[in-house]
Amino acid sequence: DLNEQITRPPAASNNNENSPNVIITSQQNEETIESSGRIGSDGSVLLLEVGRLEANGKSLNELRSEVRNILIRNGISPRFQLEIIEFKSQKSYLTVNSNSQVIFLNDQRTTVRDVLTSANVGFKPGVTTRIRLQRDGKDYSILLRDIYGENALDIDVQASDHIFVEDSSAEIVSNTSVVDYEGNVVFEGVGKIRAAGRSLSELRVEIKKLMQKVPDSQNAFQTQITNFSSQTALLNIMGKPGVVIPITDTPTNLAKTLTQTGVSIDADNITRITLHRNNETYVFSLDDLLDPSNQSIYLQSGDHISVDFLPYKDNKVFILGGVTPQIFKINPANRETLADVLFTSGGALSTLSAKRSEIYLLRGSNPVVAYHLNAQSPTRLIVADTMELRPNDILYVAEQPIMSFNRTLATIIPLRILLRDIQDNNIP
């Protein structure tokens, strides 16, 4: 659409034939004529005081020059303004995936970057966006990152251009394959390959070599294991059903697995763990497994783990000497000490015949280690309270000297009476 404003002075007055002509300048009285026209399908436009103009293929300056010449020929002052008030004759097209729109072009320079920015086309994480431009029957392709790049060249949009925005996410192909009994998998565009005995990294390398290349594509792919079913370990806990443990690409710690299944240290029992692996058997306790100083054990395919709970066997300490011989039972869970044997009710020092300064603890067999305790010294009693007893320890408590003398007399006196009776022939 063209808008024309023409300013011209009025005609001179002619009231009296003899009177001179009076010219009224534009500063005194001016008349402005305004007209507009739409460019038709044939490329022409009709303007008042000008007539029909051929506008197709001409610039605005060329049209202004033609209008000026017409006004001068018609005797009209060539003071006018000619402007384009709306652009509708030239347009291009934009298609983003499946949505299309019309882009009207004006007298200002419009680039592909301008069009994409106005349509809110931007980068998407993990998606490759390609821009395809159709112009004069030819296709041109460029990545979106190259258009938005710092040193990218501007591409001007021309009439009838068609810009396509294509995301690679719409072309992603996904398929899964189960490893068969022979250890093989089948993928589209790759074929049949062997997976048994290979790591995921090794499979990716072979898939990349065998994958059929797709034109105008980055040929990027991702391979992941969605489920682990071929490698397992078996766990049997005493008194509980067996548990099948899948072996995945993440190392499985045996101590962590047992803890998750509820196995913990029991003060009244020894937790024995038996591991069968590659025709070998390894036996250790839960205390050893949980010891931070020991090396961690990780499960392997085919492992068979058994967990047994063994109650502690009753152990004993032998008490001899100047006391009544007896056996004192000890329990590793209670951790009895020497003080428990000596000073509890009915203990070794509860009799008058025990010599408190001569207490000996014998331990071991080859060699035998002897410990001496003077229970009459208060400072030594602390030692008795901290020294734990061990199975088959021998506690010897010496006897008071007077008790030994009395026992000797008790043995001698009956013998003397017998000798006297023999001498006196007083044998019944």
Low-pLDDT stretches: 11-28
Number of helices: 9
Beta strands, count: 22
Structural class: alpha+beta
Shape: rod-shaped
Distance between the termini: 165 Å
**Strand share of the residues?**
25-35%
Helix content: 10-25%
Average pLDDT over all residues: 78
- Report strand order across the widest sheet: 7-6-10-8-9
| Global Rg | 56 Å
Sheet with most strands? 5 strands, mixed
Could you explain how this protein is built, in words?
The protein has 428 residues and is an alpha+beta fold. 20% of the residues lie in helices and 31% in strands. It is built from nine helices and 22 strands. It has helices at 60-73, 112-118, 144-147, 200-210, 254-260, 286-290, 338-343, 378-386, 401-423; strands at 2-8, 31-37, 44-47, 51-54, 80-84, 91-96, 99-104, 129-135, 138-143, 162-167, 184-187, 191-194, 232-237, 243-246, 269-277, 280-285, 304-311, 315-321, 326-330, 354-363, 369-373, 394-399. A five-stranded mixed β-sheet has the order 7-6-10-8-9. The protein has a five-stranded mixed β-sheet with strand order 14-13-17-15-16. The chain starts with a strand and ends in a 5-residue tail after the last helix. Mean pLDDT is 78; it is low at 11-28.
